[in-house]
Amino acid sequence: MPATWPASPPWGRSPPGRRRWPPASGDVTEVDRTVNASGNVSLGDHIISAGLPLTGQRVTLRLDGPVALILAGGVLARTVACPVLPEARPRLRGARPGTAQPPRLPASLVVTRRVSVRGAIMVGGQRIQVGLAHARKTVAVTVGPDTIQVAVETGITVTAARTTSRDRRRHKASNYG
After folding, report:
1. Alpha carbons 15 and 4: distance in angstroms, whole number
2. Domain regions of the chain by residue span
Protein backbone atom coordinates (compact mmCIF):
# COMPACT_ATOMS: atom_id res chain seq x y z
CA MET A 1 0.00 0.00 0.00
CA PRO A 2 1.52 3.40 -0.97
CA ALA A 3 2.31 5.94 1.71
CA THR A 4 -0.16 8.76 2.07
CA TRP A 5 1.14 12.30 1.78
CA PRO A 6 -0.49 15.55 2.80
CA ALA A 7 -2.52 17.44 0.22
CA SER A 8 -0.35 18.41 -2.73
CA PRO A 9 0.27 22.02 -3.68
CA PRO A 10 -1.91 23.48 -6.45
CA TRP A 11 0.88 23.22 -9.06
CA GLY A 12 1.12 19.44 -8.78
CA ARG A 13 2.64 16.75 -6.66
CA SER A 14 6.26 17.19 -5.56
CA PRO A 15 8.57 14.26 -4.89
CA PRO A 16 8.48 13.24 -1.20
CA GLY A 17 11.96 14.56 -0.34
CA ARG A 18 11.67 17.83 -2.26
CA ARG A 19 8.36 19.34 -1.22
CA ARG A 20 8.37 23.13 -1.20
CA TRP A 21 5.31 24.83 0.14
CA PRO A 22 5.02 28.53 -0.48
CA PRO A 23 5.40 30.48 2.76
CA ALA A 24 2.35 32.33 4.01
CA SER A 25 2.17 35.96 3.02
CA GLY A 26 4.33 38.18 5.22
CA ASP A 27 6.66 35.32 6.17
CA VAL A 28 10.42 35.56 6.00
CA THR A 29 12.41 33.54 3.46
CA GLU A 30 16.09 32.68 3.91
CA VAL A 31 18.70 31.50 1.40
CA ASP A 32 22.42 30.77 1.76
CA ARG A 33 24.92 32.03 -0.78
CA THR A 34 28.70 32.42 -1.09
CA VAL A 35 29.95 35.94 -1.79
CA ASN A 36 32.01 36.04 -5.00
CA ALA A 37 35.33 37.84 -5.56
CA SER A 38 33.49 41.04 -6.53
CA GLY A 39 31.54 41.11 -3.26
CA ASN A 40 28.23 40.14 -4.91
CA VAL A 41 25.71 37.32 -4.49
CA SER A 42 23.23 36.03 -7.04
CA LEU A 43 19.58 35.85 -6.07
CA GLY A 44 17.48 34.54 -8.93
CA ASP A 45 17.96 36.92 -11.88
CA HIS A 46 19.31 39.64 -9.62
CA ILE A 47 22.76 40.52 -8.29
CA ILE A 48 23.02 41.93 -4.75
CA SER A 49 26.13 43.67 -3.44
CA ALA A 50 27.11 42.09 -0.12
CA GLY A 51 30.36 44.05 0.19
CA LEU A 52 34.02 43.26 -0.42
CA PRO A 53 34.82 42.45 3.24
CA LEU A 54 32.55 39.39 2.92
CA THR A 55 34.34 37.98 -0.17
CA GLY A 56 34.53 34.18 -0.04
CA GLN A 57 32.27 33.88 3.00
CA ARG A 58 29.03 31.95 3.20
CA VAL A 59 26.23 34.40 4.06
CA THR A 60 22.53 34.07 4.75
CA LEU A 61 20.14 36.38 2.93
CA ARG A 62 16.99 36.96 4.97
CA LEU A 63 14.26 38.28 2.66
CA ASP A 64 11.76 40.12 4.81
CA GLY A 65 9.24 42.28 2.96
CA PRO A 66 10.98 45.00 0.91
CA VAL A 67 14.43 44.45 2.50
CA ALA A 68 17.11 41.78 2.32
CA LEU A 69 19.24 41.38 5.43
CA ILE A 70 22.72 39.96 4.80
CA LEU A 71 23.89 37.90 7.78
CA ALA A 72 27.48 36.72 8.19
CA GLY A 73 27.82 34.23 11.02
CA GLY A 74 24.38 35.16 12.35
CA VAL A 75 25.37 38.82 12.73
CA LEU A 76 23.78 41.53 10.60
CA ALA A 77 26.38 42.70 8.07
CA ARG A 78 24.28 44.77 5.67
CA THR A 79 20.71 45.71 4.76
CA VAL A 80 19.74 46.27 1.11
CA ALA A 81 16.53 46.59 -0.89
CA CYS A 82 15.18 43.20 -1.95
CA PRO A 83 14.76 42.97 -5.73
CA VAL A 84 12.87 39.63 -5.66
CA LEU A 85 9.07 39.75 -5.60
CA PRO A 86 7.45 38.01 -2.59
CA GLU A 87 5.61 35.48 -4.78
CA ALA A 88 8.90 34.45 -6.48
CA ARG A 89 10.85 33.88 -3.27
CA PRO A 90 9.78 30.25 -2.65
CA ARG A 91 11.14 29.31 -6.10
CA LEU A 92 14.68 30.50 -5.29
CA ARG A 93 17.33 27.80 -5.08
CA GLY A 94 17.72 26.70 -1.46
CA ALA A 95 14.82 28.83 -0.18
CA ARG A 96 13.53 27.94 3.27
CA PRO A 97 11.21 29.58 5.80
CA GLY A 98 13.01 32.10 7.98
CA THR A 99 13.86 31.61 11.62
CA ALA A 100 11.72 33.17 14.29
CA GLN A 101 14.56 35.05 15.97
CA PRO A 102 15.68 38.41 14.62
CA PRO A 103 19.32 38.80 13.53
CA ARG A 104 21.92 39.95 16.05
CA LEU A 105 23.32 43.43 15.63
CA PRO A 106 27.09 43.79 15.51
CA ALA A 107 28.71 44.30 18.91
CA SER A 108 30.01 47.71 19.86
CA LEU A 109 33.69 48.15 19.13
CA VAL A 110 36.08 50.00 21.44
CA VAL A 111 39.07 51.67 19.78
CA THR A 112 41.67 54.17 20.99
CA ARG A 113 42.61 57.43 19.33
CA ARG A 114 44.82 60.40 20.13
CA VAL A 115 43.14 63.80 19.92
CA SER A 116 44.92 66.09 17.46
CA VAL A 117 46.36 69.49 18.37
CA ARG A 118 43.19 71.00 16.86
CA GLY A 119 40.97 68.89 19.15
CA ALA A 120 39.58 66.34 16.66
CA ILE A 121 39.74 62.59 16.02
CA MET A 122 38.91 60.42 13.00
CA VAL A 123 36.93 57.19 13.36
CA GLY A 124 35.67 55.24 10.36
CA GLY A 125 36.21 58.19 8.01
CA GLN A 126 34.19 60.51 10.24
CA ARG A 127 35.78 63.54 11.92
CA ILE A 128 34.61 64.21 15.47
CA GLN A 129 35.47 67.43 17.29
CA VAL A 130 36.32 66.60 20.90
CA GLY A 131 37.56 70.04 21.94
CA LEU A 132 40.81 72.01 22.13
CA ALA A 133 40.99 71.47 25.88
CA HIS A 134 41.54 67.74 25.21
CA ALA A 135 44.31 68.09 22.58
CA ARG A 136 47.01 65.40 22.69
CA LYS A 137 45.00 63.16 25.04
CA THR A 138 44.43 59.49 24.34
CA VAL A 139 40.71 58.67 24.32
CA ALA A 140 38.63 55.49 24.22
CA VAL A 141 36.04 55.48 21.43
CA THR A 142 33.03 53.14 21.49
CA VAL A 143 31.63 52.67 17.98
CA GLY A 144 28.05 51.38 17.94
CA PRO A 145 25.68 50.75 15.03
CA ASP A 146 24.37 54.33 15.06
CA THR A 147 26.44 56.35 17.57
CA ILE A 148 30.07 57.06 18.43
CA GLN A 149 30.91 57.76 22.09
CA VAL A 150 34.27 59.30 23.00
CA ALA A 151 35.33 58.83 26.66
CA VAL A 152 37.75 61.70 27.21
CA GLU A 153 38.13 61.55 31.00
CA THR A 154 36.20 60.02 33.85
CA GLY A 155 32.74 61.55 33.68
CA ILE A 156 33.35 63.36 30.36
CA THR A 157 31.84 61.66 27.30
CA VAL A 158 31.22 63.14 23.86
CA THR A 159 28.48 61.45 21.81
CA ALA A 160 28.10 61.91 18.05
CA ALA A 161 25.73 60.38 15.53
CA ARG A 162 27.39 57.92 13.17
CA THR A 163 27.01 59.28 9.65
CA THR A 164 29.22 56.82 7.76
CA SER A 165 28.89 53.07 7.33
CA ARG A 166 32.56 52.43 6.59
CA ASP A 167 34.37 49.71 8.50
CA ARG A 168 37.09 50.55 10.99
CA ARG A 169 40.43 49.53 9.52
CA ARG A 170 42.61 50.17 12.56
CA HIS A 171 41.71 49.49 16.16
CA LYS A 172 44.63 51.46 17.54
CA ALA A 173 46.43 54.32 15.88
CA SER A 174 50.24 54.25 16.10
CA ASN A 175 52.85 56.27 18.02
CA TYR A 176 51.24 56.43 21.42
CA GLY A 177 50.93 54.08 24.34
Report:
1. 12
2. 25-97, 109-161
